[in-house]
Amino acid sequence: MHLEVKEYLPEDGYLEVPQSPKDFCFPFEPYKIQVDFMQNLFEALESGKFGVFQSPTGTGKTLSLLCGALTWLKLDSDRKNSSKVIYNEREPEWMSKQRRDKRFKEREQEATQLQKEYDAWVKAIKKAELQGGLENRKRMFKKQTQLEGVSLMAGDKSTSADTDDILEDYESDNDALTIDDKSEVEKWLKRLQFNCPIIREMRDLGNNNKN
């Protein structure tokens, strides 16, 4: 979006500097130095000039700056009715008024076009933010799915490993354990003792008591 500095022509008229403190909509009775501040600020804005302002500490510079600037903006937005015009003496007044009306009509069209461009810009920004949010959610979902897939694979491996620790089915027909059977049981118990956290904790506690 491209913004241009507003330029004023004689047909636009000029805004008179408010003389009454009430015209600045100050929230309370302003001091003389505050009124001077707002009037000079108003004049600088109307003239399109740069202004350097200085005021002692505690004189409400921020409030004076806001009230002075907002007062000018309010009157400028209704310049057609708020401004005064000095018509050219070399031409009929009706011609000057006609040119003035045409000028303000162009101003309204420019403002309407600028508003449309601004609305389109805001819409594009919101669309980009929404699209960015969707893309982020897609990436998060994909990442979460990948993590869940890895967890499932790890679970399958642990399940298969656990099945190695399961004893064979007991057969009542052969109560007497052979030497090979006893060695298998001992291996399983050692493995269980190593992997079980409760047994491991009890073993460590016993070792500490011995020490």
TrEMBL record:
At the top level, the lineage of the source is Eukaryota
Q: Which GO terms describe its molecular function?
A: ATP binding; DNA helicase activity; hydrolase activity, acting on acid anhydrides, in phosphorus-containing anhydrides
* The keyword Thylakoid appears for this protein: no
Tell me where in this chain the Helicase ATP-binding domain is found: 20-211
Keyword vocabulary terms for this entry = ATP-binding, Cell cycle, Hydrolase, Nucleotide-binding
Q: Name one GO cellular component term.
A: nucleus
Could you mention a single GO BP entry for this protein? establishment of sister chromatid cohesion
Family annotation (PROSITE patterns) = HELICASE_ATP_BIND_2
Q: What the protein does? A: ATP-dependent DNA helicase important for chromosome transmission and normal cell cycle progression in G(2)/M. May have a role in changing DNA topology to allow the loading of proteins involved in maintaining sister chromatid cohesion in the vicinity of the centromeres. Has a specific role in chromosome segregation during meiosis II.
Q: What is this protein called?
A: ATP-dependent DNA helicase CHL1
Which species is this UniProt entry from? Smittium megazygosporum
